[in-house]
Amino acid sequence: MLEASCDDGDAVAAASMIVVDGMGEVASLRRDHIVAAVMEGGRTPSFPVDLVVDPDQGVERLAAIFSQWLPPDTASLARMATIFGRDGLLPVVEGLRAELERAIEGAEGHSAHRIAGLTGTLGFTVASESWQAVDLGTGGRAAALRDSRTALIAIDRWLAATG
Predict the structure, then answer these.
(1) Short-list 68, 128, 56, 125, CA closest to 99
(2) Which residues pair with 17 in a beta bridge?
(3) Below-70 pLDDT ranges, the chain
(4) How much is the pTM?
């Protein structure tokens, strides 16, 4: 676990999830950071966060809250890289990465249908199902964006590890 102050810009920039005291102020964070606020007694923070954690909840409930934000594994990417070679797979992975970033940033030009297909092809089943639900009008965009952010973290880790 990384503990850093808000003044440690390098540590904050490298983090996937930022846990903050919900009663304090939060400096500007990148859109792809996952922000968790610690709030006692079910209070709501005054700034946008992805999840609220009440330290008084039982450990099972806290584990359930955090588990939805765990990045998926990249076993499918590893298998596909073995079959097609890393160089053959890289353009597809980078294309998905760019598509997910556009969606997270709220930019125009991304397609729920295309993201559902790409994430499914590359083994990110949860993100694929979320985007498919958005495409069909049966699911919420917030869940799809959450699942996109966790897939993006997994992709970044895979890219860094296979460098």
Answers:
(1) 128
(2) 34
(3) 1-18, 22-33
(4) 0.70
* C-alpha dihedral sign at 94, 96, 101, 107: positive
With DSSP H G I counted as helix, E B as strand and the rest as coil, what are the percentages for the chain, rounded to 5?
55, 10, 35
**Spatial distance between the Cα atoms of 142 and 148, rounded to a whole number of angstroms:** 10
Question: Are the C-beta atoms of 15 and 152 separated by less than 8 Å?
Answer: no
Closest C-alpha to 50, from 150, 151, 159: 150
Kindly report the number of other CB atoms within 10 A of residue 5's CB atom: 8
> What are the helix (H) ranges across 2-137?
9-14, 59-67, 75-84, 86-105, 112-121, 125-136
Query: CB neighbours (10 Å) of residue 77?
Result: 23
Q: Any residues with CB less than 8 A from the CB of 12 and at least 6 apart, and which?
A: 4, 6, 18, 27, 29
Q: Is 159 helix (H, G, I), strand (E, B) or coil?
A: helix
In degrees rounded to 5, what are phi and psi of residue 95? -65, -45
